[in-house]
Automatic annotation (TrEMBL):
Organism: Qipengyuania qiaonensis
The DNA replication/recombination mediator RecO N-terminal domain, residue ranges: 1-68
Keywords: DNA damage, DNA recombination, DNA repair
Protein name, per record: Recombination protein O N-terminal domain-containing protein
Record's keyword annotation contains DNA repair: yes
Positions of transmembrane segments: none
Lineage: Bacteria, Pseudomonadati, Pseudomonadota, Alphaproteobacteria, Sphingomonadales
Matches recorded under PANTHER family: DNA REPAIR PROTEIN RECO
């Protein structure tokens, strides 16, 4: 395997003393896991943050080997991780994507939608401006994996929150049923913070 492509980093797990196993969503190769040497070091720690856009060079000698990756930062989500709502939204959508998608199956529509959603979260003045995109992304993920119907028609914040609530059991039952980590806890935190906007 030899792949050089832009990627959205969706998960990073410590490995050994200084390395990281990064999971990245690419447009043409889908979700790819790779070993990043020095990923916990001073230079790469700000790069291997879920939500970041990176330029990835991924190499493996065989399909059965975990690839090695060299990453270069393209766009950082780090500045928004100090803001409670954007941080919760970034944590949820990256954890959901990393947990739900199978490895190395291309989902170009999801790649574009996730990039657009992360951009919206980080550029909007208020969460009201990206909650609809969040509900649409969840619906798209369900649909792309064979568990959903049409794109929901959303008129306003209240309806977007209702759709998020309706989608939660489907996500738990179909997309996250086999995960060991409690990924839905990230969604619960986000939903609590969104509820404060209308109370």
């Amino acid at each position: 395997m030899h792949l050089t492509a832009p990627a959205i980093l969706v998960a990073a797990r410590s490995h050994g003393e200084t390395a990281v196993i990064a999971r990245m969503l690419t447009e043409q190769s889908g979700l790819v896991a790779a070993y990043v040497a020095g990923g916990r070091g001073r230079l790469l720690r700000p790069v291997v943050i879920p939500g970041n856009m990176v330029q990835a060079e991924i190499r493996a000698k065989s399909d059965s080997q975990l690839p090695f990756a060299r990453l270069e930062l393209v766009a950082s989500r780090g500045p928004w991780l100090n803001e409670p709502l954007p941080a919760a939204a970034i944590a949820w959508v990256t954890a959901l994507t990393a947990s739900a998608l199978p490895e190395r199956n291309p989902y170009p529509t999801l790649y574009a939608a996730l990039g657009g959603l992360l951009d919206a979260i980080c550029s909007a003045e208020a969460a009201r401006q990206w909650v609809e995109a969040l509900a649409t992304y969840e619906a798209l993920l369900l649909r792309e994996l064979g568990y959903g119907g049409e794109r929901p028609a959303i008129a306003g914040l209240g309806q977007a929150l209702e759709i998020l609530d309706r989608q939660e059991p489907l996500i738990g039952r179909y997309l996250l049923a086999d995960t060991h980590a409690d990924v839905l806890a990230a969604r619960g935190l986000l939903r609590q913070r969104l509820a404060r906007m209308i109370s």
